[in-house]
Specification:
Radius of gyration of chain A: 19 Å
Distance between the termini of chain B: 20 Å
CATH class of the largest domain in chain B: Mainly Alpha
Structural class of chain B: mainly alpha
Strand content of chain A: 5-15%
Shape of chain B: elongated
Strand content of chain B: under 5%
Structural class of chain A: alpha/beta
Number of domains of chain A: 2
CATH architecture of the largest domain in chain A: 3-Layer(aba) Sandwich
Largest sheet of chain A: 4 strands, parallel
CATH superfamily of the largest domain in chain B: Alpha-helical ferredoxin
Order of helices and strands of chain A: EHHEHHEHHEHHEHHHEHEHHEHH
Largest interface: A-B, 58 and 63 residues
Chains: A alpha/beta (289), B mainly alpha (170), C alpha/beta (431)
Number of strands of chain B: 0
Oligomer: heterotrimer
CATH architecture of the largest domain in chain B: Orthogonal Bundle
CATH topology of the largest domain in chain A: Rossmann fold
CATH class of the largest domain in chain A: Alpha Beta
Chain lengths: 289, 170, 431
């Protein structure tokens, strides 16, 4: 299985550890990731808010790069997923939008043909690799751990698109369960992490991540499992910000699913990767790090 | 309160993502679920729809009201009319941006996109770490094409006008 | 065949009315009902708008007349399997399901049920109460005979031993019978939208979130609680009750985009009933529009507000959360008139779900050859000119099977009579 690896902006800027785990784990599952040369930012919600045609054209440009590679896209970030998936779907379904966008793209010698699919990490692990294969690579199951999963808004909404992809919370929960970890329900699981308001209204952004942390604490989870780098930022670094502004401590380690999988496979995290977690994970994952 | 603009609703309905405004029955299901609306009176999707219908163009386009949206799509999922509330919010923001009314954070991202093809750029140490790990180089090979695209859509003008100081601080 | 035989499919109020009208005109009516007793939805209700009469008190005499009228033959616990022929001369194959009880011998004394060791949820009580494997679905069942639910029966034979009339006949087999009729009337009624398809309302997960039909069973004196409105979770009397309108109705997400047309009426009726019983209980109705059409209803809504203190909140709530300790429900909503986002706690939440075509309607339509509309209700041949005709000559439809155009009880009765008149017109012409 080969994919065009769409990194997005946030991961190379602030979460190299996520990229590192993905690059280490995926080959073990038979997945090859090829870099997309010259890819631009996916045009997430902030850019979509500025101009519609720009959004279509910018996202379509990335889709064209993948089409030229002849591969489906795999992305890690929920915002990238939402942007690229929506544009891919819109242009495939509406010929007038496709023509309009291709007119702009012709300036740069590109043409959207609608030949590839956009997938995120959960899509690939659950749908293409399959739960059984994931279970097979687990050498040291992580038993006795209770977590709350944060699928993130754009993995599951808007449902009118995602229903067709049969997307739900269950995929991520099943994947988590495959490593031996128990995913427990909590109130506000569907709620946003507040990430999109970062740098636009930090006060609101913090208040929202605080609501999420409160719900997670009430459910007595031992850790939070994320798939989106934005959610990770909001809930991990966000705990320090919430502490500073609201004087509340949650001490909830936040960890990406791929890192959980990595540990379950018996691979140890490197020092710098451990430190990338602002809320320490050393106690919870003693012996695996 | 400013003068009412009775054409505002049609203006929004005519934008690519704004047609849902015609379906709104003001049931309040969107605002009941909106996480931001629960925290602040400044942002409320149902009220925003109401203001568009009433023609309160200045209030809607030149304040922070539409910019606190998380684009979490909770409202869109719950609307019984299939009114795509979340999309209408984007339509409103597009109109606001055309007038140069964009929060500083968004303007900064747009400018970064124009200058570097990315909205967030890694600091030098992160680039160094990247090289040492042997991951692919973060290139800006697409810069030329991105700028051509943005010049064609006119977003470069929106970006430059907001950057020149007509930015609304939140 | 004399040319004056008719089959009515569905033993609810619409089907009963059509049957009685035709029978009194001298037509021979075969009234087919798939459950063990006729009565339909109206038998499940407590009191009806606008007269606030006890529903069963109005219905029971009609049910009894159906069982005694010499022109009506009840084919209960039966289903229509095939139809051949055309208007004036249909041959309908009816499957007579075995009730393992001889209707002619059973007196309905109930001794068998008292001794039956198997207890299962009662469909008539919307799963809120229980019945035995040998049962009568409601105390006023017509025909007054027990039925054995073979899926749950453990073949202990106690009922056979206990029955003084020797009515239990475990050797009964299903049999198919053919009926030659000149016309067919469809009166299959409605089912209720599955509210668990809206996960944010918690139906199916939270015990104290119920549907309005379940509420009717709780309010009804012959229901599982003897007419005492108590909370499903622990049996306490609810002191704060919320009604939520348009659960599934007017909703493009599920294809049930229509207004079910009776929910505003019955929820205000239920709210007033509850207030009459327990004046100290707060009742709030969360609505998008209060569709108070027709005679007397707007006045009724006004009285509900001013005299009974029912709270009307113009809001369609976003979500309901349960307090795991108290099992109370918290509703998040925006009061759209005040423009405030609020949450409020309630002991009991009643969802008013969309009313959808009766389970099995599409299969029946295939058997009859009649068309269905986009929502799955039976389509009128010409909605303006002949609204109770289906798309097949000689087959007519009445009641909620026609869809949510009207749907309340007087309208269903009117339509039942209308189909009877249409049948008579067609058959008198062809004789």
């Amino acid at each position: 299985m080969k994919y065009a690896f769409f990194l997005g902006c946030l991961i190379p800027a602030r979460e190299l550890s996520y990229e590192a785990s993905v690059r280490k784990v995926m080959p073990e599952l038979g997945v090859e990731l090829l870099d997309m040369k010259g890819a631009n930012c996916c045009a997430p919600f902030s850019i979509q808010s500025v101009d519609y045609d720009s959004w279509l054209a910018l996202a379509a440009r990335d889709l064209c790069i993948a089409e030229e590679m002849g591969l489906d896209i795999m992305t890690l970030c929920n915002d990238c997923y939402e942007s690229l998936l929506m544009v891919n779907t819109l242009l495939k379904r509406k010929p007038e939008l496709k023509d309009r966008t291709n007119q702009i793209l012709s300036d740069v010698g590109k043409e959207f043909k609608g030949k590839i699919e956009v997938k995120n990490l959960v899509d690939v692990l659950y749908g293409d690799v399959g739960i059984d294969k994931v279970k097979n690579v687990i050498k040291e199951p992580i038993n006795g751990l209770k977590v709350g999963t944060q699928p993130g808004c754009h993995l599951t909404k808007p449902k009118r698109i995602h229903f067709e992809l049969l997307r739900g919370f269950n995929e991520l929960d099943e994947l988590v369960q495959a490593t031996g970890v128990e995913s427990i329900p909590y109130e506000r699981k569907e709620m946003c992490c507040g990430g999109p308001l970062r740098d636009i209204n930090d006060d609101l952004s913090r208040k929202i991540s605080r609501l999420k942390l409160m719900a997670l604490k009430d459910a007595e989870v031992q850790a939070v499992v994320t798939v989106c780098p934005f959610c990770f930022l909001q809930l991990d670094l966000g705990q320090l910000e919430v502490k500073r502004h609201f004087n509340e401590e949650y001490n909830l380690p936040v960890i990406h699913f791929i890192e959980l999988l990595r540990m379950g496979m018996g691979m140890k995290l490197e020092d710098w990767e451990i430190k990338a977690h602002r809320i320490p994970i050393t106690d919870l994952f003693k012996g695996r790090l | 309160m400013s003068e009412l603009d009775f054409g505002f609703m049609s203006e929004v309905a005519g934008t690519p993502r704004g047609s849902g405004i015609l379906l709104c029955i003001q049931c309040g299901r969107c605002s009941s679920g909106c996480p931001v609306a629960r925290l602040t009176n400044d942002h409320n999707p149902r009220r925003l729809m109401e203001m568009v219908v009433l023609g309160l163009k200045k209030e809607v386009l030149s304040t922070q009201l539409p910019w606190y949206c998380l684009s979490c799509f909770t409202c869109l999922d719950r609307c019984p009319q299939g009114g795509d509330v979340g999309d209408v919010m984007f339509a409103i923001r597009n109109l606001a941006a055309k007038q140069g009314n964009v929060p500083a954070g968004v303007a900064a991202q747009a400018k970064a996109l124009y200058d570097t093809t990315r909205v967030i750029n890694p600091v030098r140490s992160a680039l160094g770490k990247r090289e040492s790990m042997g991951f692919g180089r973060l290139d800006a090979e697409g810069l030329d094409e991105v700028q051509k695209i943005l010049k064609r859509t006119g977003m470069d003008k929106i970006v430059s006008s907001t950057w020149e100081g007509r930015v609304k601080k939140t | 065949m004399t040319g004056k035989e008719v089959m009515v499919i569905g033993g609810g109020i619409a089907g009963i009315q059509a049957s009685l009208d035709l029978a009194s005109r001298g037509y021979k009516v075969y009234l087919v009902e798939r459950s063990p007793s006729i009565g339909g939805r109206m038998a499940q209700l407590d009191k009806t708008f606008p007269t606030m009469d006890c529903s069963m008190c109005i219905l029971a005499p009609k049910m009894i007349e159906c069982s005694h009228h010499h022109n009506v033959q009840l084919l209960s616990y039966s289903e229509v399997k095939a139809v051949k022929g055309s208007a004036g001369n249909f041959v309908v194959t009816v499957l007579r399901k075995p009730r393992y009880v001889d209707e002619s011998k059973c007196t309905g004394c109930n001794i068998c049920a008292e001794h039956c060791p198997v207890e299962v949820p009662n469909e008539f009580d919307e799963q809120l109460g229980t019945r035995k494997a040998i049962y009568m679905p409601l105390p006023q069942a017509v025909p007054r005979a027990m039925t054995i639910d073979k899926n749950n029966c453990i073949d202990c034979g106690l009922c056979v031993k206990m029955c003084q009339a020797g009515a239990v006949d475990l050797k009964q087999e299903p049999r198919e019978e053919d009926y030659n009729v000149g016309a067919i009337v469809v009166a299959t009624g409605f089912d209720v939208f599955d509210a668990s398809r809206i996960p944010t309302y918690g139906y199916g997960r939270y015990k104290n979130v119920i549907t309005s039909l379940e509420l009717e069973r709780l309010l009804c004196a012959s229901g599982p609680t003897g007419g005492h409105l108590i909370r499903p979770s622990e049996g306490k009397i609810p002191r704060t009750i919320a009604f939520i309108q348009c659960v599934g109705s007017r909703d493009r997400r599920f294809g049930t985009t229509y207004c079910s047309s009776i929910c505003c009426k019955y929820s205000v009726k239920d709210a007033v009933l509850i207030k009459e019983h327990e004046p100290n209980t707060t009742v709030s109705i969360f609505y998008i529009d209060m569709r108070a059409f027709g005679r007397g209803f707007q006045e009724f809504v006004n009285r509900a507000k001013s005299e009974y203190g029912v709270r009307f909140v113009r809001s369609s709530p976003g979500e309901i959360l349960e307090d795991p300790a108290s099992k109370n429900l918290k509703i998040w909503y925006e009061d759209t008139i005040a423009g405030r986002i609020e949450n409020a706690e309630f002991d009991l939440v009643v969802l008013c779900p969309a009313l959808v075509p009766s389970r099995g309607a599409s299969e029946l339509a295939k058997v009859l050859g009649t068309e269905l509309d986009d929502y799955g209700f039976f389509k009128a041949g010409d909605i303006l000119v002949s609204p109770v005709d289906t798309t097949v000559p000689g087959i007519f439809v009445c009641g909620y099977a026609l869809g949510p155009k009207t749907g309340d009880i007087p309208d269903s009765i009117m339509q039942g009579s209308a189909t009877a008149a249409r049948v008579a017109e067609i058959l008198e012409r062809s004789v």
